[in-house]
Amino acid sequence: MPNWAYTQYIIVGPKPSLQQASQFMERFIGKWLDEPITALGVDPNADGIECRGWVDGVYPSEDCLEVYTQSAWRNHDSAIEILCQHFNLMFYYISEEFGCDWFVSNDINHVYFDEEVYVDMQTSSGWISGYYSPNELLQLMADQTGCSISDVPSDLLELKQWALEHGMKYCYLNACAFDEKF
User: Fold this and answer.
1) Whether 112 contacts 92, CB under 8 Å
2) How much is the pTM?
3) 36, 59, 114, 138: which could form a disulfide with 110 (CB 3.0–4.6 Å)?
4) CB atoms near residue 45 (< 10 Å)
5) How far apart are CA 144 and CA 156, in angstroms?
6) What is the mean pLDDT of residues 37-60?
7) Would the pLDDT of 2 be above 80?
8) DSSP label at 74?
9) pLDDT class for 99, splitting at 50, 70, 90?
10) What are the beta bridge partners of residue 41?
């Protein structure tokens, strides 16, 4: 039984290509990732392509196409890479396998995703979970502890220990790794 990685893709390029890709991908919502690959004439078995997962949602907008997938153990980008090659598009992604220290993105310049840290912590008033930029994380910690933002360490290992010493009952911090593959 795998753990599931949740991946959000932002696909960008010429509007006519985005419209064609959207119409194509909408046929595969709820289908396994090998189905759009096969429909584009690629045999995932012969080419050794990883596609253990399915298309969770397809959301076109004016200037991009959002595609959500769930896949076994980590993001499987092959279907999106093949789609983008076929329609002359590019993609950005962010992916996380919750609780398994898998949190990656190829959006190094934060064009679409500015989240860099996943936080799951228990405070005296309840749980806080979500994605934060570094500045948002420092502000969150200052707000939760009543300390000045200048007193909050920016190193994640130090920050976790600091949070526990300053009243947090539980603190899980997972930094995003950046993949330069585009």
Assistant:
1) yes
2) 0.86
3) 114
4) 9
5) 16
6) 91
7) no
8) S
9) confident
10) none
Decide if 78 contacts 44 (C-beta within 8 A): yes
Query: What would the two tokens of residue 89 be?
Result: 């598009």
Give the tokens for residue 164: 């526990």
Average pLDDT over residues 86-109: 91
Find all residues with CB under 8 Å of 166, minimum gap 6, and list them. 145, 147
The whole-number average pLDDT for the span 149-156 is: 92
- Please name the residue that has the structure tokens 């789609």: 83
Q: How is the chain split among helix, strand and coil, in percent rounded to 5? A: 30, 35, 35
Longest CA pairwise span in the chain (Å): 58
| Residue type present at position 56 | D
Return the structure tokens found at 49: 């392509």
Q: What angle do CA 6, 1, 95 make, to 5 degrees?
A: 15
CB 3, CB 64: distance < 8 Å: no
Q: How far apart are CA 139 and CA 78, in angstroms?
A: 38
Nearest to 16 by CA among 56, 59, 65: 65
Q: Range with the lowest mean pLDDT among 29-38, 109-118, 173-182?
A: 173-182
Q: How many CB atoms lie within 10 A of CB 81?
A: 15
Residue type, 168: M
Residues 107-144: b if buried by 16+ CB within 10 A, e if exposed: beeeebbbbbbbbebebeeeeeeebbeeebbbebbbeb
- Average pLDDT, rounded, for the chain: 92
Record the tokens describing residue 76, joined without a space. 């499987």
Q: Is the dihedral of CA 24, 27, 28, 29 positive or negative?
A: positive
